[in-house]
Amino acid sequence: MQDTYKHKGQRKKLTQELKKQGIEDKKVLAAILEIPRHFFLDIGFDKMAYHNKAFPIGAGQTISQPYTVAFQTQVLNINKGDKVLEIGTGSGYQTAVLIKLGARVYTIERQKELFINTQSFLSSLNYEAKFFYGDGYKGKSTYGPYDKIIVTAGAPYIPQALKDQLKVGGVMVIPVGDSEEQIMYSIIRTSKTEYKETKLGSFMFVPMLEGKQNTFKQ
Ligand code: SAH
For an engineered disulfide with 49, which of 38, 114, 177, 209 has Cβ 3.0 to 4.6 Å away? Predict the structure, then answer.
């Protein structure tokens, strides 16, 4: 796959669009300008890769809309070296954005097919992260606590394990709701026992499902 001037031009346009939609964080915009999103999609989507839309990535899942990726990343306010737990590796695009911002990323995917494909794909592009096949509801306590946690699937509730694995002073961004619509929450752990929740508007994600999925299906 090639990253052409045309692709770069399309990315420039996309970042301008995101700016108009309210994304202000220059580092987030710079990461989106730099990362070739079309690499993360099937060749058939090449022409549309920089439309501000979600697309199918196989196994019945989607790559999040660029606006959503930018929005969630902006909420996290990533500092270099932050330890970040990501639930829902999917295509790996969000993972790549976090890595570009200097995060140390621990990412969990419940679909075996995506876990395997995305891990080798990101490694081939030299994006280093720790990949886990498992159920994101449980988080990954062995590597915690985390400075930041990002959930990229619609959760019916806020999993307690994820709250427990957030550092005091840390931030979690998670869409909470039913399969139709979710409300984005920013959750700041203000002390060992206290959390501050803020609602940040409505979004639409594929659902966060319990358990692991081992069968390969399209
Ligand atoms: N960040 C991804 C979004 C993918 S869509 C991207 O930009 O491509 C959401 C992903 O979450 C899907 O790949 C889905 O399989 C995964 N997922 C859903 N429930 C999960 C769970 N309980 N644990 C881990 N991953 C989960």
Answer: 38
